[in-house]
Automatic annotation (TrEMBL):
<keyword id="KW-1133">Transmembrane helix</keyword>
<protein>
    <submittedName>
        <fullName>Glycosyltransferase family 2 protein</fullName>
    </submittedName>
</protein>
<keyword id="KW-0812">Transmembrane</keyword>
<dbReference type="Pfam" id="PF00535">
    <property type="entry name" value="Glycos_transf_2"/>
</dbReference>
<dbReference type="InterPro" id="IPR001173">
    <property type="entry name" value="Glyco_trans_2-like"/>
</dbReference>
<feature type="transmembrane region" description="Helical">
    <location>
        <begin position="258"/>
        <end position="285"/>
    </location>
</feature>
<keyword id="KW-0472">Membrane</keyword>
<dbReference type="InterPro" id="IPR050834">
    <property type="entry name" value="Glycosyltransf_2"/>
</dbReference>
<feature type="domain" description="Glycosyltransferase 2-like">
    <location>
        <begin position="22"/>
        <end position="153"/>
    </location>
</feature>
<dbReference type="InterPro" id="IPR029044">
    <property type="entry name" value="Nucleotide-diphossugar_trans"/>
</dbReference>
Amino acid sequence: MSSQFTPYSNYKYQSMSETIAVCVCTCMRPQMLERCLLSLIQQECLDDWNLIFIVVDNESSPNNQSLVERFQSKTNFPVVYRHEARRGISTARNAALEEALSHKADWVCFFDDDQYADKQALKWAYSWMKEHDASVVSMNLTYVDQAYTPSLEPIRDEEKTRARALQTCGTGGVLFSASLIHPDGLALRFDESYALSGGGDAAFFFAAFKKGAKMIRSKKAVVFEEITGEHFKLRTLLFRTYCTKLQRLKMNIKYRRLAAVFAFVLSSILFPIAASIELFLLPLYRIYSKRFFHKRLASILRKYVRLVVLLTCPFAKPQMYKKIIGY
């Protein structure tokens, strides 16, 4: 792995007062977006921070402009609205990156519009970035039920300072150095061939890792993501599993991660065998508990999904982001 990537020693990306671009891409989820932005403008900040909030509206019309602009009166930091009519999550993310660079951001942070952050999430991510000399910090994503009000669970002492090394991550709660996207740095962008399929964020950060970027996960920087009733539907669960695993397999093939590809091929053969054996236990699961039965059924079917991914990988082009789940 290259050792050329040293963002902290490069004066081009640092200033005495550091600017963090906090970016949210949104599409057809206005209520979730409002909750997300409210959690972001309430973040605890360090004295030398300059925040700029960037919202990229990926709907065909600028439907969320007035909602976003209302937040300017609630914060002393600038709130930027940008409409990107070309549909696709990668397209929207690249628009956010261009805005971040135009405002000379030292750091870029992404949240999904169906998420909301603990008030100390950004501060913890930033402190871990500095403490561990990392260029990317992935936050601790916690899934919550639609009807559940989350609370922070205590973190064990040994996990408070443990930085888990990563090779890639998603954009659902991530802070990274602007040197990843700066023309004088790595000049990375999200691959727009992933616009509707998903997986572009994993490919983006793995490309950074291959070029020497240090990537870690912070347990203390907590972000919540709401799981709606639609997520629990079996067809939705299986389709999203299929899309996620397919894009990860394609990425591993593209970057010639032979060990990861071999492991997936092997599991695609062994997992369905194990699932077929467990099928005989389903009647007993149903007697024990209806909820447990549905949970195990979903697990069994997800094992078969691996085989479907393997067989369809050369030609499949699913569009997970064509349908938006949320409100």
